[in-house]
Amino acid sequence: MIAAMSTPDLVAPGVFRLRCGTPEAITPIAVRRSQAKLPELEALPTAERAPFDAAQVQVRHGARGLVVTMPLRRGSGVFGLGLQLKSVLQTGKKKTLRTNADPVADTGDSHAPVPFWACSDGWAVLADTARYASLWIGTHATLAADDRSWRERVAAKNLPPSDRVEDLYRNAAVGERIVLEVPIAAGVDLYLFHGPTLLDAVRRYNLWSGGGVLPPIASLGTWYRAYTGFDQAEATACARALRADGMPIDVFGLEPGWQRSCYPNTFDWSPARFADPKGFLGEMRDLDLEVNLWENAYIHPDAPFAREIRPWCASETATDGLVPDFLTEQGTALFARHHAGLVAQGIGGFKLDECDNGDFNHPWSFPEWAEFPSGADGEQMHNLYGVHYQHAIDGMFRAAGKRHLSLVRASGALAAPLPFVLYSDLYEHRDFLRGVVTASFSGLLWTPEVRHADSLEDLVRRVQSVVLSPLALINAWYIRNPPWVHIEPKANNRGERMPQADRARGLVLAALRLRRRLQPYLYAAFARYAQDGTPPCRALALDHPDDPRSWAIDDQWMIGPDLLAAPLTAASPRRDVWLPAGGWRDFWTGEPIGGGRSFSVEPGLARVPLYVREGALLPLATPVERVTAGQGFEIVPVLYGDAVAHGALWDDDGVTPGASGRWLDLRWSRDGGLAGVPAASRLYRFAAPCAPSVALGDVAS
Ligand code: GAL
Fold first, then answer.
1. What is the predicted pLDDT for the residue at 698?
2. Close Cβ partners of 563 (under 8 Å, ≥ 6 residues apart)
3. Which domains does the chain have, with CATH numbers?
4. Candidates 102, 261, 353: which one to mutate for ligand 1, based on the most atoms within 8 Å of Cβ?
């Protein structure tokens, strides 16, 4: 049956809605909690037309659900679909968007699948469904009634037969349409985002979702999550030891063991292990550490709010705990009210674990047939759970008048306004790098967290990668000592020190100091994210959609306007780097490098390949160990231009939601020196500008 279709409605600047059939009652947009940022959308370049009109879209409704066919220009690149750990370029792929904690193959399973895709031609689409929808992106064509068009299509490929095994299947792709299949539903709204560029289309989606986010500046330092078995004295000793060792840590995370009971959770302090939470939190404050608490959403019968929340929970349990329905006001309010008590004690953020679906290894989540008081079924709820769990916690922080940055293991559509960063139990470094790249297409943030390592090189390369990501996280939840003391978990827990421990510490410290230096620059990148939707860490394709060489790059990314990261893994001390057209400089030495080409680098273990746009001024911070409230950062303007250099900082109080702020436009010229330094600033003091080799001379090499 052909389903009815509307003509595209303009719903916000550059955002058009195309209604296909009769959509379901529970969809990401029907239950959305965030408002579009309309003034910021107005400020984007104008886009007056929908990227394609209704006549180019076909909709069929049958027993399996809905099939929607949309146009795709042959030769264009398609990106997005949320966090995709296995591939960045989606053209030629089939993906099923299913929230899953074990995304081990390139199937679309993900901690954060998003039915949103963006095209190098400068448009993007959000399919408003919470179903496990599938997409075929340039893979199939319908057999027409006459053979002519079919013959022509096959002939048009005009590829000679290949004798190379790896080329054998390249003829198989068809490439002129995207097909979306939505199970069960009788309709779906498509939201079309017009660029005019790929980056503008993604910005438009982010702003229309209500994002991006500006976290507290301290949360952009380094995080350390401590061993889950620690009691209060041991956790305190661990934090003190990190300080005594000179490690520039800013956030200290407690894992499940802080609670009276976990799996399912009581969400309160263990009287046996943490007898004096007030004393503990006071101690952490004295050490300038923000405390972050682990939890998952599943509620123990003895939790203080279990009885009250029970009517607002699913028909099924998860880890035998109640599953709160975050689509209900009542369930959300009761859950949030309890957490507000923890925030009043001084907790700065949470780690929302295991809100993805555990299908394979640990069935820790609710089943698809679960029924929820809101009317959602388990399938829909899986694709909505991460986002609405985040809203419950974020809404509580907003009500408390506090900014936060937190962690979450599942997310989905319209997540850009949520200050949460995704992470995973899977531990493949190469996939973790790809996550930074792919998350940036769909309003998501990702951290390639560090746990243990296979070798010194593996540890150092992982730490160097994570400090260049949205959140620098050492997740030592299963080791008693930092991984730089011993990389191997069993030996680490026996208290052994590896022979290369001193070298490892020095190299890790250098990487964490790099993070500290970048903290104000990252803060500015986040401020831009909040103001115009530009992802702070972004795929190269977002800035260079017209150069197909950028499309499949999955181990390099831009950080803010001027910095390009090309991290290494332990697999090889050498890698290829592709620099976009234009002038670039080596971050460490300031040496000029021409772009628009690939080249090979072997920088040695102490250095991670980083490149700076010619003419940039990087406002780097002096790498102090502790960021003490009210003291701010000393900024060293580092010059990557010979005659002029330009950079910017966001200057507000660094902590208050909606705090008034201003851009500091820093301009240096050989003749005029540095301009744009304010008479007074709440966050920054300024040192004299200098060359990279002077500013970074203390970095181990
Ligand atoms: C896992 C999570 C880990 C750690 C652990 C604690 O699911 O990914 O980071 O928090 O739970 O049990």
1. 66
2. 518, 521, 587, 610, 611, 612, 613, 616, 618
3. 9-209 (2.60.40.1760), 220-518 (3.20.20.80)
4. 353
User: Does the Cβ of 258 fall within 6 Å of ligand 1?
Assistant: no
pTM of the model: 0.97
Q: What is the mean pLDDT of each run of 10 residues along the chain (701 residues)?
A: 77 95 97 97 87 89 95 94 98 96 93 98 97 95 81 75 66 80 97 96 98 97 98 98 98 98 97 98 98 98 98 96 98 98 98 89 86 98 98 98 98 98 97 98 98 98 98 98 98 98 98 98 98 98 97 98 98 98 97 97 97 98 89 96 97 94 98 96 96 82 46
First to last CA, the chain: 67
| Ligand 1 proximity of 475 Cβ (cutoff 6 Å) | yes
Which of 262, 357, 425, 432 maximizes ligand 1 atoms within 8 Å of its Cβ, making it the mutation to test the pocket? 425
Q: Is 294 in the pocket of ligand 1 (CB under 6 A)?
A: yes
CB of 256 closer than 6 angstroms to any ligand 1 atom:
yes
Q: Residue 136 Cα, ligand 1 centroid: separation in angstroms? A: 33
- 109 in ligand 1 pocket by Cβ < 6 Å? no
Give me ligand 1 centre to Cα 494, in Å. Answer: 21
Q: Is 356 in the pocket of ligand 1 (CB under 6 A)?
A: no
**CB-based contacts of 574-580 (< 8 A; 24+ apart in sequence):** 574/600, 574/601, 574/602, 575/600, 575/601, 575/609, 576/600, 576/601, 577/601, 577/609, 577/611, 578/540, 578/549, 578/550, 578/553, 579/611, 580/540, 580/543, 580/544, 580/547, 580/550
On whether the CB atoms of residues 229 and 241 are closer than 8 A, the answer is no
> Which of 319, 477, 478 to mutate to test ligand 1, by most ligand atoms within 8 A of the CB atom?
477
Q: What is the pLDDT of residue 358?
A: 80
- DSSP symbol at 138: S
Print burial letters for 584-617: b (CB count within 10 Å at least 16), e (below 16).
bbbbbebeebeeeeeeebebebbbbbbbbbbbbb
Site of tokens 């299913």: 98
Tell me if 409 sits within 8 A of 422, measured CB to CB: yes
User: For strand 249-254 and strand 290-295, is the pairing parallel, antiparallel, or unpaired?
Assistant: parallel
Residue nearest to atom 3 of ligand 1 (CA): 425
pLDDT value for 243:
98
Query: How remote is the CA of residue 191 from the centroid of ligand 1, in Å?
Result: 35
Cα→Cα distances 441→2, 113, 610, Å: 32, 12, 22
User: How many Å apart are CA 481 and CA 490, to the nearest integer?
Assistant: 11
Query: How remote is the CA of residue 101 from the centroid of ligand 1, in Å?
Result: 11
CA 325 to CA 313: how far, in whole Å?
Answer: 5
Binding site membership of 353 for ligand 1 (Cβ less than 6 Å): yes
**Cα of 353 from ligand 1 centre, angstroms:** 7
Residue 701 pLDDT: 46
